[in-house]
Amino acid sequence: MSALTTMNSKISAIFYTANTHLRNYENKIPFGFRWIINLIEYIFTLLLFISLIIRYVWNHTINPLLSRFNIPIIPKYPLVSFQNDTVLITGAGGCLGHALAIEFAREARCLALLDIQKRPLDDLKHSLQQIYGKEHCRIYTYRCDLSDLNALKFTMTTIREDLGDNISVLINCAATAHFKDIMSHTDDEYQDTFIINTLAPIFITKDLLGGMLARNHGHIVNIVSSEALSGSAFTSSYSSSKAALLNFTETLSQELILAKATGVRVTAVLPFYLDGGIYTTLRKYGKEKVLGITPKRFNVAASEIMCGLKSGNSPIYLPSLPLRVTSFLHAILPDDIWNPLLLYVLGRRPTFVNQH
Predict the structure, then answer these.
(1) ω into residue 322 within 30 of 0, thus cis?
(2) Domain map of the chain by residue range?
């Protein structure tokens, strides 16, 4: 017993020391370093403003002139259509899944909506039928807890009985998150996060991929996260599970090339802060605005995702420019610079509670 008490005292002392250093990390940052960070934030904001101006001028001035004089400067490719597709959306009862279901209901022949809660799915089905009519798009709802892989297998069997082997678009949108420091995570939280965020999408993809390959027609969309590009403090379970899903998406894309399955596409979607859902909890650990970017509403994000899918973009970054620049900086900067830079930009603060 005394040995346990001694060990606990040593661990508490370690945490207290770490806590003291972490709480003062901002005060120890040189003034020049802070000035550089602020300059980077201003540059990001300026680039966003310039990109909006360029887009406006292109859409309202240059593009109309090119069309008027029939000048084919940029070739136009046909947009992808989902009119004859059967779409399965996991996490359809959540914020982003709900918004994506509304987007796909405009075109798809059939929707299969899956979520852990049945009531939001029934409400969504009723709303879509009121908007588009019962004959416009057939809608099926399925309740399933993705953390139970046996229940997932049973649900996939039920879906196959209802719809046959006709699902041609899969949207893996369901996710869970626990935002806390590593020592506060329980083993069950890590396990559930990886099952829901990584294993369940992989198993569903494997279940449906054979039919897509046989028809040489299909689209697999994995809603990943910008956290997959670089893990940040207090997101260890979430960011690592999403990074695994991103790597799976890239691997699948390469294997489809080797299989010459030209009609089957796979797309990773990497959103940054969204206005609600699990992102509300994450923002409590840092700034409300990061690099001048305000949280994006879910209906806006869903519209941009649909636009990217129809245009054939892959991956889809939301927003595009800041995440691409961030990914580039992460690739070229050493950890000694990148980690404190990311902490400062996100505004993350220490949350250790083990103190004397």
Answers:
(1) no
(2) 30-68, 86-346
Three-state DSSP class for residue 244: helix
Distance separating alpha carbons of residues 247 and 230, to the nearest angstrom: 13
pLDDT attached to residue 326: 82
The CATH code that applies to domain 86-346 is 3.40.50.720
Burial-class residue 116 by CB neighbours within 10 Å (0-12, 13-18, 19+). buried
**Beta-carbon neighbour count of residue 144 at 10 Å?**
21
Inform me whether the pLDDT recorded for 323 exceeds 80: yes
183 or 288: which carries more pLDDT confidence?
183
pLDDT (mean) for 300-310 = 94
Q: Enumerate residues 6+ apart whose C-beta is below 8 A from 47.
A: 321, 325
> pLDDT by residue (tens digit) across 73-108?
555 556 788 998 999 999 999 999 999 999 999 999
The whole-number average pLDDT for the span 267-290 is 77
CA pair distance 129, 111, nearest whole angstrom: 11
Residue 197 three-state SS: helix
Q: What is the C-alpha to C-alpha distance for residues 36 and 47, in angstroms, rounded to an integer?
A: 16
Pairwise CA distance, residues 54 & 60, whole Å: 10
Q: How far apart are CA 138 and CA 233, in angstroms?
A: 43
Mean pLDDT of the 147-160 span:
96
User: How far from the centroid of its chain's Cα atoms is residue 11's Cα?
Assistant: 36
- Cα atoms found within 13 Å of the Cα of residue 250, Cβ hemisphere only: 12
DSSP-H helix ranges across 58-148 = 63-68, 95-105, 118-132
Question: For the whole model, what pTM was predicted?
Answer: 0.79
**What b-and-e string marks burial along 181-196, b requiring 16 or more CB atoms within 10 Å of the CB?**
eeeebeeeebebbbbb
